[in-house]
Model the fold of this input.
Amino acid sequence: MSTQTLQGRPAGVKPLVVMQDVGKSYGNVHALRGVNLEVYPGEVTCVLGDNGAGKSTLIKIMAGLHEHTSGTFEVNGVKRNLASPRAAQALGIATVYQDLALAPLMSVWRNFFMGNEIRSGLFLDAKRMKTIADEELQKMGIQIGDLDRPVGGLSGGQKQCIAIARAIYFGAKVIILDEPTAALGVKQSGVVLKYIAKARDAGLGVVFITHNPHHAYLVGNHFVILKLGRLTLDADRHELTLDELTAEMAGGQELADLQHELGGVDPGKTVDPDNPEIELAGPGKPRVQSHGTDDDATTKGEV
Done:
């Protein structure tokens, strides 16, 4: 099991979620193997990895979409096999996906209470829902103004923050954020990162899924890196620097090997287009221009 020794954590604080040697297989395909992960209240746990690393599978297990096939998954100290997202939500685990599950043509307050509407008799209690939505958004520092405006007119950062505030209001103790900054610019990413920190400060356990080590290091307390379904890094913030995290994310030794392979390539080189060094002899068949000697002729397998 992963043992965290995070500096500054109050003594006696127990993890909300513990995954020990968790694996997920689809027939003969192993999407996850031997994953250890702990999520503590009041902390941001960053899960990094390239495409195909297993991040989505990890999210689905925690969110109740898929059951793990090996290892143990504990929530509040009790072993669980979550059979549905409703089961995860009942235990206080909420997931905010990239598509946010927001209806762009519906108002802010309707999106906030979507599926959990408050009624007064046979009708919706719009006044009360607007008041609650406004109060909860302001707690997160979100100023929307007109709550009747369609969500589709808001910025990407504002949409993410509405989804986060909604999850917190409906009882989430653990929030899983699936690449919340992936489709955002620098400014909007900063807005989302600020609200991730606010969720942490509210005592929630935040799981921040991302492929951007710079974003992760701005708010993260603990970092894990997935590669091909396995953990390749499991470290607290005080145990590594941003440069080390970036290097691990980029591939570590594999990147060093790649740099060695490309050692003879001049990255600053420019070529005169009228005198190219390579002549394309057909689709996908590069041929080095001959200068009149047999030694200069290309052989099969050379570029």
Q: What stands out?
A: The two ends are 49 Å apart (CA to CA). The CA atoms of residues 16 and 70 lie 20 Å apart.
